[in-house]
Amino acid sequence: MNLRLRPRSVRTRLVLISTVLATLAVLVSQAAGLTVMRSWLTGQIDHRLTHFRPPPPAPYAPAGDESSGGPDPVPREASLPSDYRVFFYGSDGRLRPDSLGSGEGRPRLPRTEATLALTDGRPATVPDRRGTSEWRVIADTGPDGRRVVVALPLDTVEGATSKLLWLSLAIGAATAAGVGLLGSAAVRLGLRPLDRMERTARRITGGESALVVADTDPRTETGRLGIAFNTMLDQVRAALHRKDASEQRLRRFMADAGHELRTPLTSIQGFAELLVEQPRIPAARRQEAHELIARNAERMSRLVDDLFLLAKLGYAPVAHRETVDLLSLAADGVGAAVVAHPGREVRLMPLAASGPEGRRSALDVVETLGDTHQLSQVIANLLANACLHTPPGASVEVRVGTVRTGPDTGGTDRRGRSSATAALPLGIAVCVVEVADDGPGLAPEAAQQVFERFYRGPAGAGGPEPGSGLGLSIASTIAEAHRGRLELDTRAGHGSTFRLLLPRSAGPGPDGMTTFAEGL
């Protein structure tokens, strides 16, 4: 039969442990005292034995000669101090029946001297003949060569030790009872902060998530536990808040994605049903239906590609890293924008130097470490955004250079600047690609939303249909994956400047060789 003990509470275990330890301490101390007392009393008896000199046996000799075989000798009247007993061995080596002293009982001594296992002058303990008590004895050899044994009873020692033993047991029982009662009250008082913490935890699990533990004294164990408990609660609340925010963003993202996909799918379905239900429609309308189906399918394909790219950047931010020349990428992007938007003024310029003069340096190679395809996509998205959302007469400038992060040069937060990523450390060297236009700019509310997914600003006059609203979100995600930042400086009526900042990973060293410099 397998019996399992029920687990006890901390309070019960503490009381039991303290009671057992206190009782053991009392019993051990009493046992030590008992041992010392018994040893001292025995030592006193040994001292009396070693300093006692028994009277000579002559007065106790028989009236006739021992060899004549006469009757046993009869002791004469004699007195001994206290409870001493003296025993003699005769000339024949046998224990004589007579002894000096009075009292009940006698030690168990051998009948012959040959079997007397006692060393002269060394006390020993022997039992009583009736087995009721013990004797302390010492042997000596008289001048005539006969052995004499002096004995003292140990009744007083045994009585004292017995009384002390019962007293020790009584003290131990009283100590156990007292420690049990007082210890229970003391432990209950000491564990009161833990009880309050337990009640608080139960209320939190019941739904009162805003509660905290009040016992936070760092000098005590319960206070440090309370601090750790409150810290854990803060982390759990923050994690739940992030989880709720993430779920809300995911729901909003799925709703926006479903809405964006529903529009082209509805168009494709409608025109496909038209072609199926009316096979004899005019060729011009048939051609128009085919073109609209192809256009909506292409739009849906771009949307799916953008969503796939966002998902890919989430778990594999930068698949391939190599040295990238941002000046070459900017030049390729400017060339493609000029072809895609004829008549639009798009210029490639060096980045203005920081300082009050604002001088521009010559165009030079600006290198960073990253994925060439992803960075070129960022520049293309910024250029397409500038050309689509500004009037036809607005000019666009692409500026490339290197700066150190700051409120004026970029990379840090300031009023009128928005970004979807955190600010970069102040004063580090970064590579910069700016796409600036002199269009109408954006209102502060719109500037805070441009990096959100599926946010679409109004198209420029005569511009094509707005895109899916994922371009700037993808560009910001790519910049963050490269340990950089994409930000916007804009003001209504003063144009917009999108700024891509990336860690400066390579540059010319002091000896003219290409060396790697410190990035983030």
Mind telling me the C-alpha Rg? 54 Å
CATH architectural type of the largest domain:
2-Layer Sandwich
Number of helices: 9
Class derived from helix and strand content: alpha+beta
Order of helices and strands, N to C?
HEEEEEHHHHEHEEHEEEHHEEEE
Largest sheet: 6 strands, mixed
Estimate the mean pLDDT confidence: 77
Shape: rod-shaped
Q: State the share of residues found in helices, binned by percent.
A: 40-55%
> How many domain regions?
3
How many E strands? Answer: 15
User: What is the distance, rounded to the nearest whole angstrom, between the alpha carbons of the first and last residues?
Assistant: 68 Å
Strand residues, percent? 15-25%
Highest-level CATH class of the largest domain: Alpha Beta
Unreliable parts: 58-78, 354-359, 459-465, 506-520
Question: By CATH's scheme, which homologous superfamily of the largest domain applies?
Answer: Histidine kinase-like ATPase, C-terminal domain
Instruction: Say what the CATH topology of the largest domain is.
Output: Heat Shock Protein 90
For the biggest β-sheet, the strand order reads 7-9-11-13-12-10
Please describe what this structure looks like:
The protein has 520 residues and is α+β, with helices and mostly antiparallel strands. The protein starts with 9 loop residues before the first helix and ends in a 5-residue tail after the last strand. Helix content is 44%, strand content 16%. Mean pLDDT is 77; it is low at 58-78, 354-359, 459-465 and 506-520. Strands 7-9-11-13-12-10 form a six-stranded mixed beta sheet. The protein has a five-stranded antiparallel beta sheet with strand order 2-1-5-4-3, covered by helices on one side. Strand 14 (507-508) and strand 15 (514-515) form a beta hairpin. The chain has nine helices and 15 strands. The radius of gyration is 54 Å and the shape is rod-shaped. It has three domains: 11-55 and 75-159; 221-298, Orthogonal Bundle (Helix Hairpins); 318-515, 2-Layer Sandwich (Heat Shock Protein 90), CATH 3.30.565.
